[in-house]
Amino acid sequence: MQTSDSLAREGAPYLAKLNDAQRRAAEFGAERPLLVIAGAGSGKTNTLAHRVAHLIVKGADPRRILLMTFSRRASTEMRERVRRICKEALGRRADVLADALTWAGTFHSIGARLLREQAVTIGLDPDFTIHDREDSADLLNLVRHDLGLSKTEKRFPGKGTCLAIYSRAVNSEAPLDQVLGKAFPWCAGWADALKKLFAAYVEAKQAQNVLDYDDLLLYWAQMMQESALAAELGGRFDHVLVDEYQDTNRLQASILLGLKPDGRGLTAVGDDAQSIYAFRAAEVRNILDFPAKFTPPAEIVTLERNYRSTQPILEAANGVIARAQERFTKNLWTERTSAERPALVVVREEADQANFVAEKVLEARETGMRLKDQAVLFRAAHHSGPLEVELTRRNIPFVKFGGLKFLDSAHVKDVLAFLRFAQNPRDRISGFRLLQLLPGVGPAAARKILDRIAADSAPFDALAALPAPAKTGAHWGGLVEILRAPSGWPSDLARAKTWYEPHLDRLHEDSVTRKIDLAQLEVIAANYPSREKFLTELTLDPPDATSAEAGPPLRDEDYLILSTIHSAKGQEWKSVFVLNVVDGCIPSDLATGTRAEIEEERRLLYVAMTRAKDHLRLITPQRFFTHGQHSRGDRHVYAARSRFIPTEMLGSFDTIGWPAVRADETGPALQTPVDLRARMRGMWK
Ligand SMILES: Nc1ncnc2c1ncn2[C@@H]1O[C@H](COP(=O)(O)OP(=O)(O)OP(=O)(O)O)[C@@H](O)[C@H]1O
pTM value? Predict the structure, then answer.
């Protein structure tokens, strides 16, 4: 006799590979909101992709599905998975339907798209440009300067801190005083001045027709406060699905609630144990409180079977997270047995750590494991410095994710400033950067030029009417010509690049490698239909490494992955090394102020450990060499094993000392100190 389960499986064979809980999540109707609590490696991404595919196969209109992911990479991957699953069910028809899944992207990119569409209705100019964090901080700095706040007697908070305070207040929907009291107590005395600064910053943004990251969510959330607009936007989508819900903030939660107030058609997927973005105002309460936001409350489906890691790896990771404070309890289990426990590798110092990793990576490669199946993870981007040197020395190719992004490099920013200014001549920060690339044009001259064209309705014509600044030669005419006569996309980028290259040679020594980056930028640009789309997407979600976005030449080659833990989110490798599992690194000594911060560091270690499928090695160097930050110059500091692996947990690991000291290697111990200085003096006697 057939059970209803097997009937369902027959009815939808493309769901047959899912386990029962996953299938329940994939098939759950749209009448009630759904919360999928998915443990690490339990197939969250897989399940969400099946749910979307199932909706499409059952007849949902893909143009009316809104699918929000944490990164652009995740969204591309999700769409590809949906396509593959739909193909199983629908054959060739699947491509057209998967292509129609156009509302898939990050919260910020969807926000940008909706704002541009609704711009006229909400009093925005549709040509707005988007400032990244650095541009936003620069603009805040200019405003701070104009208000005379940089000249105060007691030092006013720096531009980065001001932006962090502003951003935190906006994203957490909290009053300034509360944000200062909770997260920036040392700035509490500046509340009034900060309010003035933020008000002026908002005015400057509006005058220049720019939005910052936070505005994309803030304006969107404000649109949802207008009942007619909220009804229109919400009515556009039959299904709204959000991945990585644990890393959303209050604003994002209000947007979702505005889109689907009764929760019908709403799906949130996440894992509270992997919430690692509180420093960007992510609110773990969003996921904890989600079910009760609706009547009747959201259905909760919990995925507890882990398909990724072996049992000993999972046991160690479970041990770390079991000591966390508040969470949805899950008992992650796996059928993947293994005799190999994760290793806790004790090395003397960072140089040994680098040697250990390089040696083990090569050993694994000898046994047939590709470099790409191995990853080295670390808490802070600079932790991989010594390892990068060692890998380069041994000719082991690697790609690093996290840390300094491709788009942060000065030359790439220069070209982007060119394109942004071309898109929006009121964007002073971009104009300021661009004009100063010209020989002989400094901040004062640049400011003057921008002032003179600011009020003009045809700013580039006004620019053409100005006399060429001294020393700019033919560069001025070339610039004005390109700005006045756009040639289409992506040739606009090619022209900007050609214009910029002589300046690159003049401004930077290593112009050859920088030119390669610009060539990569051109490759990336070709994937976008317009300048506006290119600028928006790249600003919102910059690629972590050139290879992440550009494809060739690296994609076909084999290389080791180096990544910050934050950038490793959602990924998996056969073999994982975690560097510097010591107090001061995890938890970072910058984040040990509050209990909440420490808890977040614990989750970070958990995320790192749960990336491993078969082999996991946590490395603990016993001493570190710090460079010149102290009055006594360079020195060694001693480190202790991370507090997240207390002694009671050691049973979950194999503790290994490396390099192993062999008896025949130890020479006679030095009994009495040698006076080398006396010896040196003796040489000349
Ligand atoms: N039903 C299943 N049968 C077999 N393998 C599965 C199943 N579901 C998921 N997997 C495998 O489990 C692994 C983890 O899946 P996925 O990446 O979707 O997990 P995740 O929950 O998003 O992980 P995390 O939250 O830790 O990033 C993948 O290798 C996937 O192929």
Answer: 0.80
